[in-house]
Design brief:
alpha/beta, 7 strands
């Protein structure tokens, strides 16, 4: 069993997406996926690192043909249990999509893999794999966990900053440093921009999918429904503001595959 499998065998991903902070992420992200879809019907969608199928199932229910690739068997079983027509499930990971045909997907989602790839070279490989299977002028949506979220939420809120600085897990400029033994990696906007430059992908837009929601779990849970809906509206309407991107928990880059790998 890999480190990733061991983690997700204990972690309830299905529950996370049903929480209020998870609902914010899903609501905002689906808004932008729908912008990429526009009025088109019956698209071929690839969901790499599909987790328990939250996006795969939702898009299949809208009539699209979805291929879900997920390395964790437990998560694949959850997707299978939903018995959703239009979702084809494969074991696999973002670093090797050789079992999928070239230029076959209108939209490719990378909503988990880049959280767990610790080196620049691995992230580039994931994008090259996604480019190969995505149609020319198709969209690739890539999600990241942001550096400053980890610094604020873990290092300072949990009083771990001094030991992280001492160990080298955080630089003197407060950038997280991920080793091969770490489960998660955290990026800044300049790191994401460098990936785009290296892979030749053209940004359409970049948005904060959940903003402050992950910092406000208790507060969101305490809100009445009307106030919570106002918060979701707030996050959607402010999701493109550049001054708010870096401190969001999750950020999603919408990229155009102008040229296949």
């Amino acid at each position: 069993m890999t480190k990733l499998e061991a983690y997700y065998n204990k972690f309830n991903e299905e529950h996370r997406l049903s929480t209020r902070h998870g609902q914010v992420e899903f609501f905002v992200t689906m808004h932008y996926i729908h912008q990429c879809i526009n009025e088109r019907k019956n698209l071929a969608v690839l969901d790499v690192g599909a987790g328990t199928g939250r996006y795969s199932v939702a898009l299949a229910q809208e009539g699209h043909m979805v291929t879900a690739v997920e390395p964790v068997e437990k998560n694949r079983r959850v997707i299978e249990s939903k018995h959703q027509k239009g979702v084809n499930i494969w074991p696999g990971n973002a670093l090797d999509l050789s079992f999928l045909p070239e230029s076959s997907f209108d939209i490719t989602l990378l909503f988990g893999p880049l959280y767990h790839l610790n080196s620049f070279e691995e992230r580039v490989c994931a994008f090259e794999q996604a480019k190969r299977v995505t149609k020319k002028n198709g969209f690739i949506l890539a999600a990241y966990i942001m550096n400053d979220y980890s610094i604020i939420e873990y290092c300072f809120k949990k009083n771990k900053i001094k030991e992280c600085l001492l160990s080298g897990a955080v630089t003197q400029n407060y950038a997280s440093v991920s080793s091969e033994n770490d489960l998660y990696s955290y990026l800044r906007l300049e790191d994401i921009n460098l990936l785009n430059e290296k892979t030749g992908l053209e940004r359409v837009k970049i948005f904060a999918s959940d903003g402050a929601a992950d910092y406000m779990r208790r507060e969101l849970n305490a809100m009445d429904q009307e106030t919570f809906e106002l918060f979701m509206d707030y996050q959607l309407k402010n999701s493109l503001r550049p001054e708010l991107l870096g401190a969001s928990s999750h950020t999603v880059d919408i990229l155009l595959n102008k040229k296949n790998a």
